[in-house]
Design brief:
Spore Coat Polysaccharide Biosynthesis Protein SpsA, Chain A, three-stranded mixed beta sheet, 10 strands
Length: 364
Amino acid sequence: MIESILTITLISVSLVYAVLIIFIFFGFKKITRQPHHGGGTMEVSIVVPFHNEEKSIGLTLESLLGQQTNADFEIVAVDDHSTDGSTQVVADLVAQNSHLRLVESTGQGKKAALATGIASASYNAVITTDADCTHNSCWLDAMSATFEQLGCRLLAAPVVLGGRLNWFGKFQYVDFASLVGSGIGAAGCHRPIMCNGANLMFSRQTYNELKDPLNSKFASGDDVFLLHKMKAIGAKICFSVQPETIVTTRPAPSVGAFLRQRARWGGKATGYTDADSLVVATVVAAESILFCIGIAALPLLWKPALVLYLTKLFADTLLLMTVCKQFGNRQFLWWMPVYEIVVAVYTVCVAVAAMAGIGRKGWK
């Protein structure tokens, strides 16, 4: 009896998951057909919060200062009480560039630094990015043109992993691409659920209309909570996948750092009130939990577990082939058979950590 119930449940969940991913796949295809034209003419404030980023912030700011644009822009670098040489690196660049300002955060943590930077911005159009990202020279023009032409209140664009990637970095590339692609695909179906604050543009006027727009209760999730709150008031939310709008960042340096990062990201899920996000999170968690149960119950449930695995492998590969092609890198998809097993296990771990309140602390 129990075996029959588990078998039916495993197969049912696998079908629901496949339908969800295919739904997201077609949404992603819709977004790819939304090009922008020309360069932006907006006045833009770029906010870069940082804490002990001595090794990377110089490259980030240089990529921002090297933007080829006629638009007026400023860069507000917000120091969250760094104890390394980050502040000096920024101060040296400020002395050489009129576009760059250095501001001290009025609180503690990344969200406080973001809030400080947004409050200090000179312009209504604000872009947030991270201190370990690099930007191509047309990025600002592409972002501002898309924002302007689509009439957005919030515009999200992709963040991808770059640099020389080892085997673990390649695994992270696939995992990160699945998150980014899912967020874009859901938006293409008019159900935006997540975005990345390392590449996010929004109206400060709309931001100021929101109560606690970054949800200060949680250390992580400033980007997703802002999207959810703008969605709740009916603000127009847009996504771009144009190559010029893509931002590059680095993978987590170790397995431990990766798991801590995912625990922080998962920890914010307990604060979700957005119905679409809750549905997707529930389906993904249920699929992962049942897959782990199927593995644990081998050989008793090997047939439904195999159906679940193959269905998930097909649906995820279909989506990621399109996502990685758009981002210019499909060579890491050979990870998929192993990725599906590993991601199910760590998703369950993240879900448990979120329920236990783990992941509410940490800077990013």
